[in-house]
Amino acid sequence: MRVLLIKNLSCNFITNSNNFNSRILEITKKESLLWGLALF
Q1: In Å, what is the CA distance from 5 to each residue of 13, 24, 27?
Q2: Domain total in the chain
Q3: Alpha-carbon torsion 29, 9, 14, 12, what sign?
Q4: C-alpha angle with apex 9: 35 to 1, nearest 5 degrees?
């Protein structure tokens, strides 16, 4: 399962690198905000 996920992620990363990176940044920002609120 992990290998398939990694392959899918790599394919998405290669094909849609710009959109993929922007989505990851948005998700990480939201997650960091949620974690900050949850911890503090």
Answers
A1: 12, 16, 18
A2: 1
A3: negative
A4: 90
SS (H, E, C) 1-40: CHHHHHHHHHHHHHHCHHHHHHHHHHHHHHHHHHHHHHHC
**Is residue 28's pLDDT more than 80?**
yes
- The Cα–Cα gap between 22 and 40 comes to 27
Residue type at position 28: T
pTM of model > 0.85:
no
Query: What range defines the domain where residue 22 resides?
Result: 2-39
